[in-house]
User: Fold these one by one.
Assistant:
Number 1:
Amino acid sequence: MKSKASIKGHPLHPILIPFPIAFLIGTLVFDLLHVINRNESYWRTAGYLEIAGIVTALAAAVPGAVDYFTIVPPQSSGKKRATQHALVNVGMVLVFIIALFLRDKASNIVILGLEGLGVIMLFVSGWLGGTLVYRNQIGVDPRYANAGKWKEAHFNQTSGSIEVATSNELETDQMKLLHVGNKRIVLAKTESEYLAFDDRCTHKGGSLAGGMMICGTVQCPWHGSQFDCKTGLVKAGPATEKIATYPVTETKGKVYLSL
Ligand code: FES
């Protein structure tokens, strides 16, 4: 799903995270060099790197939090993974903050132990973050033939007939994510009509709006389950449960969703 914290479609979180990764690993490396060479300039450099690492980690957390709350599909394996990613990162930053405060008070072993732990947490967090991008496609804006630009809209009205698009707003095979109250519903245009169905894949909660739709079939981007957009029935697994569908009508150039 397209990142909300981005510049011209480029997500900010992956742009910022190389800084804390480099600075915090550099902290451990320079403190190790200090222990080996007893050179005070290594110790001072490590201290500066640690401050830079903590500050840039906090800066990188801001767009990460925006994406966590706005685009990671709720009730999904991706949300669970994103929560673990966030918690490990918070723990990692706390470990480095503690190491920073103890720099002139504790022994080298304690400092190196804390920084080593922080770097391990950094790797675990990176592993989870990589899975979030490369498997769960968080922050990715995939475009397939005729999909057009990512479309999304919020509606306060949560029942009755809701105007959700104009008749010519979507191309054939294009989708639009509708936030209707707490519901996430996909509006999709086939060759002959507009259809609406739940955004949540029944396998592990992938966002179908971020997937691909061709000839009235939508494919989940996470593990490839396919659903009939009109009936919601599963056409290919691993999902086994159908998705909910909703009535859509078109009148005088406007598209209405009924809830
Ligand atoms: S979440 Fe696994 S196929 Fe959709």
Number 2:
Amino acid sequence: MSIFRFDLPTTGIQPSEKLLVIKLRVLLVYAGSVAAFFVPPTPALLALMLMGFYLRTFGWEGGHHRYFAHRSFKTSRAFQFVLACLGASSGQRGPLWWACFHRAHHRHADTPQDPHTPVGNGRMYAYLGWLFDKNNCDTNLDDAKDLTRYPELVWVNKYHYLLPYLYLAGVYALGQWTPLFGGDAGIAAVVWGFFVSTLLSLQGSLLVNAFAHSPRPGWFTYRSYRTPDTSLNHWLLCLLSLGASWHNNHHRYMNSARAGFRWWELDITYLTLRALAAVGLVWDLREVPEHVLLEASRPDEGGLSTDRGDRQ
Ligand SMILES: [Zn+2]
Ligand SMILES: [Zn+2]
């Protein structure tokens, strides 16, 4: 069956599913979450939801973003595959697609070539619209040659949609056939452990796109660095995005494994990476140079810069 092809091309355009399918899948996450109003949460269901949120948000922020897009730490080929699967299970598609579009975002931040800037497009486009733009669906494998060396990553990128379904099936099995949720609770486990947790995890990424770039820093935001883009540190989103919302810091020094630069800028992804490094699953975490940390201006003093050079 073609769905399980393992001899996929590693160059050129890897086509995505049809745009309608992509839209329906996102819609399904929102619609499925509405069912939570009819399924009372229990402590066990909430724990399942939070665990799924944490694991899979780490999948896209620690995996798709900091590892695949920025190569900010090293790991084994096996754990790299685990990260790719975790990231894909969050509903944020494959690691190569994520890395290509995110690298384009950094390269062209807040210009017309930026795939999801709210500048000039509006917040709704940065939030969801860009995902439904047919120009942003396929993966140009030639833009991620460092990753296409691994056929298993090309495979996950192509069949990324299997991973959320696998996660859903696992969650159903836990609810239905284990005593953890009182038994016969497969549907309730899917509603809270899959739909609500996927919706929350997705919000972390989409809200950062929509609200961590703006020419007018507003509520909950500040700039620490004079970057040539409109990136903002958004403290209210730091839990929901596991640290991805320290976005102005990140645009200043994007290849660091760390995005929260001040002691109070909580960066759960970085803390998780430190814990994984302590047990030897990842290593060589790229840190932020001292001069970059010192360079941070006081909150709200980081104006716009026209200098696009000399940034990592
Ligand atoms: Zn950005
Ligand atoms: Zn980035």
Number 3:
Amino acid sequence: MSLFLNLLVLSILLLLAFLKYSHSYWKRRGVPHEAPPFPWGDFKEWRNTKCFYEILTPIYKKFKGIAPFAGMFMALRPVALIMDPDLVKSILIKDFNHFRERGIFSNVRDDPLTGHLFALEGTKWRELRHKLSPAFSSGKMKHMYSIVVKVAEEFKKVLDEKQATAAGGVIEITDLLSCFTADIIGVCAFGIECNSLRNPQAEFVVMGRKANTERRHGLLLDQFIEAAPKLARTLRMRQIPQDVNDFYMGIVRETIEYRERTGVKHNDLMDVLLELKTKDGKDGGLTVNEIVAQAFVFLVAGFETSSSTMGYALYELAKCQDIQNRLRAEINEVLKRHNNQFTYESMQDMRYMEQVISETLRRYPILPHLVREADINYKTTDSRFTIEKGTMVIIPVYELHHDPEYFPNPEKFDPERFSEAEIKTRPTCTYVPFGDGPRNCIGFRFGKMQVCIGLTYLVRHFKFSVCGETEEHLNFLVEKMILQPVNGIKLRVERL
Ligand code: HEM
């Protein structure tokens, strides 16, 4: 018995010594860092009481200027928080070859929906990215433009009806906006008209929201998967809830079967994916499961990112009527110049709109940080600091966008920051709402197009203003990776 007790005590002591030693990683390398909370590391409160960026901001502020990056721990995993824009540029663009992967969880065998572009690695990612990129070219956007405009027209009608019945014209806009973008992605990526604008409980959008919020496991196992993705894959763990998996597998299989049977073409993202389909997925082709995973990521990465951007833009426009009026004047003037036709070309003439969207994404970067993983021992230009192979690298987008050195008075919403002259004054890679380099957002044109068309219809036909129910400062959901307001956004809407 006493031998057993001795062994138990010894094992516990050894485990504690190992944990302590792991947490001394940055100290041993002379990298500035805060003492990590034992044993969960710096991200202990993430998803529980704090958003990701609330954990990064104090570290960024404390160590910026002292070293090109600061050390953090996600449980035992060392994380390098990059603060120097030159190093950001090297990681994302110049030395991208050494930082190609995000190092996030993916388990194609047991959890097929995780085999998507965002998580894929190596040759599979490179080939797929190469093949999917043409689907998001400006030429293809022109084709999908009319689909988006059709949904925007329906959106205008729905908002008209809602406005007529809402008490005092006060409407919570975020849910409505996410139905707008879900309807668009539904048609473009899945080939289905889910019509969630009329039926907000449509399974398509409910499951899409669930995929962004809910996990298969509780907080602890979820954090384990994030902190040790390779081990989690070896243990054959899964992340996507079963009902979400079954739903999307079902609808994409049906779409594939229908298109193959009828030979019907829609000129959309699903057509591009189907062109890549082969039986065994060899020679860079895609299996059915891989097609489902790509359509799934277009939904997850595409609908709430774009709808939230619109929500934040309307929130800021409601707070600042001058900017709203100037934007409306531009919309009307451009349309007049194009014989009242809202065409793809007229959209591109809206320069101030572009500035408003850029400033919205500065103030509210929907993905508040970017992630990469080093695949060599990477020497920074400061010879004292090396990012070792396997280290998780975080680019703090929210912190860069709110750094007064690059954006004076950062809390102020000011589209003038994105005039051509102002843009030139800033170092590259201090503004990265869509990431940068070869692994940037593949859908950025599509996202911007949805936002631009949506805002054009809304601002042209409605006036948005703040009311008693509008929050003065927005708080963000802690359980989401993307920036989403806790209580939605309530605004007074008037028809024009
Ligand atoms: C305003 C809207 C959007 C924002 C703010 C946004 C933002 C981002 C960001 C920050 C990244 C990571 C980039 C990096 O790590 O360097 C990303 C990646 C990605 N986005 Fe978007 N996105 C938007 C819309 C869309 C849309 C509409 C789609 C597809 C229909 C899409 C699909 C993707 C995919 C597939 C990736 C992974 C790319 C890869 O790893 O190769 N996004 N997005």
